[in-house]
Structure formats: structure tokens, C-alpha cells
Design brief:
With 199 residues, the protein is mainly α. It contains ten helices and no strands.
Length: 199
């Protein structure tokens, strides 16, 4: 697997440094929404200056869910759509599958928040159709959006999502089968860390 190059690593360090500086200046411990908002602001200072397409691609994948967590669905949607456009020319990049997964999850959560259940369901399935990535194959997909749909009573689409995820998540240790059984029994599974990988 090819790792992020030095430019992206430096950008991430700069973003964190700016965030720490803002936190110290404010002398407070910000909540998740505030942290996400500050990280978005920090990353936006550098994303447009990145010289390589792959660097911008990786950072766009990072900033997309951050914008959603910051409470800005318009900006999150813009970044998600841009990420999918960039992904078309990045199919050989190790982060391609992560980008497809992330962008569709963000767009799906935006649709769900807007009350468009049908569109949300469609986007969940698109997220599950990612070809996978080193991270997705090892740690598995993010399940927060699926959990939100289960809370709306949308069992069938979540089970379909599990099936799609089984195509790339080969190291699930039987979790997908267990979660499927629980959903069929009208339970909402404890997805553990799988609700924290993207959001």
C-alpha cells in the first residue's frame, strides 16, 4: 500500500497545529462540532494550494466528513460531490475505495437529515458498492449511517448494505452475519468502532 506523501503529512500536521493553537487561545475544550469546524477551516487554508492531484484527493476525502460533523451540510455536500468527481481519475489510487465510501455516506446522511429516505437508501447502497481499500478490507465499513436508517425502521436496505460490504470486508470475523441476524430479529446491533471510522 502506498502511503500519503510528505506534503499531505505536513498539511495534516499544520492543520493539527492550528487547531491546538486555537484551543489554547480560547482556553477551553471544544466539542466535536467545534473541533470539526476548526479542522475544516485549517485544511481549507491549504487544500487549494496542494500541487498534486492525489494530495488534493486525499485531503478532500478527509475534509468531507469533517464538514458534515461541523454542521455544514451545504459545504459537506459540495466536498462530497467534488470528491466523487476527483475519484473518477483516481481509480488506481489506494484511497479510491475510501473516497467512494465516504462521499456516498456523507451525501446519504445529508439526504436523511433532509427527510429524503429513498435517496438516503440509494446512497447507502452506493457506499456499499465501493471496491474496497486496505482499510475497508481490514477494519470494515462505517456503520453510523446504516444505524441511523435502522432507527428509521429501514431494515431491508441495511441488510442489502451488509451483503455488499461482504464483497470487500474479508476480515469481518463473522460480524456481518451476526449483525444481519440481529437486524432480522428487529434489533439494532452494537457496531462498536465501526460507527467511528468515517464520522
Amino acid at each position: 500500500m502506498r502511503f500519503l506523501n510528505i506534503t499531505v503529512k505536513c498539511t495534516f500536521v499544520i492543520s493539527l497545529a492550528l487547531l491546538v493553537t486555537m484551543m489554547v487561545t480560547a482556553q477551553q475544550t471544544p466539542d466535536k462540532k467545534t473541533i470539526a469546524s476548526q479542522l475544516v477551516a485549517a485544511q481549507e487554508k491549504v487544500i487549494s494550494t496542494l500541487p498534486k492531484a492525489e494530495d488534493k484527493f486525499h485531503m478532500t476525502r478527509e475534509i468531507t466528513p469533517l464538514a458534515f460533523n461541523a454542521g455544514d451540510p451545504v459545504k459537506a455536500g459540495m466536498y462530497a460531490k467534488d470528491l466523487l468527481i476527483q475519484a473518477e481519475s483516481m481509480k488506481d489510487d489506494w484511497d479510491y475505495g475510501n473516497a467512494v465510501h465516504t462521499a456516498n455516506l456523507v451525501l446519504g446522511r445529508i439526504a436523511l437529515a433532509a427527510g429524503d429516505i429513498d435517496e438516503a437508501k440509494r446512497l447507502l447502497l452506493l457506499a456499499g458498492k465501493t471496491p474496497g481499500s486496505p482499510q475497508l478490507e481490514s477494519f470494515g465499513p462505517d456503520m453510523l449511517f446504516a444505524k441511523e436508517l435502522l432507527e428509521k425502521g429501514e431494515k431491508d436496505v441495511v441488510i442489502q448494505y451488509f451483503t455488499l460490504c461482504s464483497a470487500f470486508w474479508k476480515m469481518d470475523d463473522g460480524k456481518l452475519a451476526q449483525w444481519k441476524t440481529e437486524v432480522q430479529n428487529n434489533e439494532i446491533p452494537d457496531f462498536g468502532p465501526n460507527v467511528r471510522y468515517v464520522f
